[in-house]
Amino acid sequence: MTRWLARGPVVADTYGPPLGWLSHQALAWVKLNRVEFEALFPETERNRPMKERLAALLERRPVRAWIVSDGARPVWLAERGGEPAEFAPPKVNEISPTGSGDVLHACMIHAVFHHQRSLPDALTLALPYASANAAHPGVVDFPLNNLSFFGSNP
Q1: What digits encode the pLDDT tens for the residues 9-45?
Q2: If we measure between CA atoms, which residue out of 114, 102, 68 comes closest to residue 77?
Q3: What pTM does this model have?
Q4: C-alpha 60: how far from chain center
């Protein structure tokens, strides 16, 4: 991991024991869902507001940003040096959410590393794709070029 971190930014979308280990590394960000996020805290702390727990993670762990998805509910973004914020996904008729978190993360990676967008901008750009995925029966079972971000400046 030390060699990877020395080469450039490392991001993760993980859970279970790897999440525990990776959360103690100086990653650019960790993307996880709400259930995975809850597992980082003892039962006694899970009733604390999301904003407080995200701020606590930024203080306790070297990860520079945390992205927490929660199905059709807002996605939380907490970056070192900033206030945790919520980003509402577009409302859709959900058919299958399977893979929506992966779509969200892939689009964010593309926006940050290919288009040099900030994390808040990347999240804003990625949310319509994750929602579009949830509105279809398969994973990425929709035309990407119908959504403006991937249809331009490839």
Answers
A1: 999 999 999 999 999 999 999 999 999 999 999 999 9
A2: 68
A3: 0.89
A4: 19
Cross-strand pairs, 66: 30, 78
**Residues 84/51, Cβ–Cβ less than 8 Å:** yes
From 107, 13, 130, 4, select the one nearest 65 (Cα to Cα). 13
Is 137:95 a contact under the CB 8 Å cutoff?
yes
3-state secondary structure the chain: CHHHHHHCCCEEECCHHHHHHHCCCCCCEEEEEHHHHHCCCCHHHCCCCHHHHHHHHHHHCCCCEEEEEECEEEEEEEECCCCCEEECCCCCCCCCCCCHHHHHHHHHHHHHHHCCCCHHHHHHHHHHHHHHHHCCCCCCCCCHHHCHHHHCCC
Dist. CA 117–CA 153, nearest whole Å: 13
Q: What is the pLDDT of residues 45-100, one digit of tens each?
A: 999 999 999 999 999 999 999 999 998 999 999 999 999 999 999 998 888 888 89
